[in-house]
# Entry
Amino acid sequence: MSASSPSAPRGQDLPPATNWRRPQINQGWLARLLDSKTFLIIACLTPALGLLMVFLTYPLGLGIWLAFTDTHIGRGGVFVGFENFESLWYDWVFWGAVFYTVFYTTVATVLKFGLGLWLALLLNENVPFKSLLRAIILLPWIVPTVLSAIAFWWMFDAQFSIISYILVDVLGWRDTYIDFLGTPWHARWSLVFANVWRGIPFVAISLLAGLQTISPSLYEAALLDGASSWQRFTRITAPLLMPILAVVLTFSVLFTFTDFQLVYAITRGGPINSTHLMATLAFQRGIPGGQLGEGAAIAVSMIPFLILATLFSYFALARRKWQQGEAND
Amino acid sequence: MHDLTRRGALGLGAGALAAGMAVPGRARAAIPMGNATPPAHAVEKGATLRVLRPTKFVDADETVFRENTAKFTAQTGVQVRVDFAGWEDLRPQTAVAANTGAGPDVVVAWADDPHIYADKVLDLTELAGYLGQKYGGWLALPQRFGKKWGTEQWVALPMGGSGGPCVYRISWLKEAGYDSLPTDHENFLKACQALKKNGHPAGFALGNAVGDGNAYCNWLLWSHGGMVVDESGKVAINSPQTLNALKYAKELYQTFIPGTLSWGDINNNRAYAAGEIGLTQNGVSMYFSLKNDPKTAAIAEDTGMARMPFAPGGKMAENVLLLNAMVFKHTRFPNAAKEYLRFMMEAEQYDTWLTGCGGYWSHPLAAYAESQVWKGDPKLAVYRDTNTVEFWSGYKGPISQASGSVAADYVVVQMFAAASSGQSTPEEAVREAERRARRYYR
# Structure
């Protein structure tokens, strides 16, 4: 109620309205504290920062520090500068792992995206039993990695492979069993295949979600304009799918690059190191081999690659026009 | 034969455990004992112990170990908690205990670990001396791994070793023209060639297989007189002996079933049980799993076990996985811990364990050669001498972190795999192995 309230009769001897004060409630210290912006900022951020420090910054920092020491399991180390990296530089086992990691990531990602996009497009059509099909598609992703790895390990077995059995004993197309994991390139492709099988659902379902956000009216308009289905795909679907594609691509690259379980469970990096990923080599040298410093150095060598992948996503997402389906200028 | 097998099964399976427990005198009577006074270790009042050891591979390993521990608690009042760690987790867990000075008092570790933590473990010389005197002396490999390098000081108490002799099909070897397995390399190769010709190839793991890969490749190296490092720890793998071993391995590889480059620890067991291979190398566990399954019992019947061809001088050259117990200095109850180890190694407990495991962990003390376990089934006799081997991982240098790292990086295995498969010439393979070994021995 303000002093200039029209209902107040003029001329009456009222105390000046400006003297009116809202009755002061004596606030407790807690209430005052909770009203303080500074305090709130600190209180709300501390747990998050704490978690980040304890579970992310500290382990990462420790890992980087270890990479510059000669720490062994069971014995502390001293700072040795770039000695671990120098020694890795001349180690072809390490370079083999770098090569295979890049190969594995590139080939598997391309295949996962090609097949995943294709699957997503199919599932986006009106197919019978749509929900059931979508649930089935997710299966490879739901099965724990180690379980699927063991299943593949049997399928790729030198003596008991079902694939070889069918080709040799049932169909008679071959005379000998395929040595899936015993020759370098067979083993490399076998692992890529296993990874693609596991990774497709993630890509397909994410892209399907992206496809469903595209308004059908756009397609209708395009149809009226007489656009072919290829034109509709390149002019509507592809640009509108780009933002989500960029995110999914980044995640997929990161997951593939840091893969460990499939390779460790199926080949342990063999035959003769031809399928070592940087992650499996880092583990082998660091934990069973006891050379924590060297293992950490291998793991740290993965960071530049991961940063590249993250930057790609950052810049891809920052391009707003692209997101809105317009051409970049 | 049939009778013998049945009796063997009774004497070796879980039945042995029951028999051992029911008539405790019988199993013990066989072990000859010398005169020795146990070291005077007065168990601390209110002592409790934590023990860490690798997980069981055969059931009795855990059950008998726990029963023996319970007996110790009943007799001394010391509460003991035994934790079983996965084989690959044991080493990191030991490292944490050693570094933090907390956790288990006693660790039954892998062979090298007590040497890596030699300054953090209690001296066990007195105890080892007593056990050696009472039970006919320590065998060669336990001496190597019990004593600190180059000294007479015992830092660990080896408890048992798992070896990998040659395992083959008797009838197929006979068909190939051999009544028994040849003990020299040349005829061994010929036997394998004959087996292969008859469609029963050999199969040895050449993949990154912790147990079987190292077993096969170390045998190749040692039995040809090769070594990774010399006595002083200098890399000495690039030698004519190693080259001979590589050339031999290449020829032997021609007699293998395809795919051994990808073999892990389990593949040879599967292929052997399926009758795909006629000859391999393995611990005693495979024989028992074949024997205890009615479907494969016939294969067990037809299975023979013998030494792999010997090293120069007729020395056995097989790789052994050794259990090596140590007591950390950080324990609050050193006497109780030493008493516990003594108790577990005394015949009454040890022989029950040895017998219960069917000889899986072969004994480190000479007197246990008389144990019932080696008499029930004559085929097992070859495992009896497991611990008499004079070669060790990292032969012929000190047991150290470097020897462990070279093994974990599969340097020797991959050298043989590369040369066998023809991916490198023997000369290239050995140079590469030399380079890789030097990265650790520096």
Notes: Residues 1-27 of chain B have pLDDT under 50 and may be disordered.
